[in-house]
Amino acid sequence: MTLEKWLDEADRVLIAAGAGLSAAAGYDYSDTERFAELFPVLHDKGLWARYQLIGLPLPPRLMWGYWSVHVDDIRFGDEPNPVYQRLRELVGARDHFVFTSNVDGLFERNGFDQERIWTPQGDYGRYQCETPCTRETWPSRPIIEAALATYDRSTGEATAVPSCPSCGGEVFLNVHKGPEYVPDHYVPAGRRLREWLDDGVLVIEIGAGYSTPGVIRSPVESVVRGLAGARLVRINRDHAEVPADLNGRALGVRANVAEVLA
Q1: Residue 147 needs a FRET pair 20 to 30 A away by CA distance; which of 6, 31, 233, 259 works?
Q2: Where is the Deacetylase sirtuin-type domain (predicted)?
């Protein structure tokens, strides 16, 4: 069993990606050097990595100072990424779909069709009411750019704190962090993926560990179990083990993602 052989034989390919793929591409939430460079005030307060800010309450101006810089850095960059581009090259002209917990837009920005990308955890590219007072969500680039325009690196604060266009209340990015999350924008892509799946699919799971196994790992195992001709390749540096009941239809590749794609 080899990835190359299964890829050659595949009728269609489902890319299932976790945080490990973006980390391999250089967007690592545990990168202490990049954090200190971008967020000197927060670093001086004793923080050292972006993952610590997930769900951390901050005063509004400091919060939007952080999130505007973070989202601008990780979501709205326009330069191509070689790891994601190599993955797109490997998929080639094969019929394919993407299922990812990542909210950074890197698939779309590197040549994957937006209509074939399901991001059930949301997207930094949108924001929502925190109440929420409405099921509507909005593009986040305008509020990120407005906050950045008022960002003071010496204080870490942005004075342009956004508010809900509907009720005037607090807003946040449209990502899954609690029961207030509004997933409606992503539901059609999930429906398209379910309709697209069939027995000939090769699932290539990349960088999905055990921090949130119910988002990527467990669902793709269920997909392969439910489709008699489906196969699973799990590429993971630390957790490449595959279920015993998928013997002969699942391959674990314990290696760095970037090295495998190269």
Answers
A1: 31
A2: 1-262
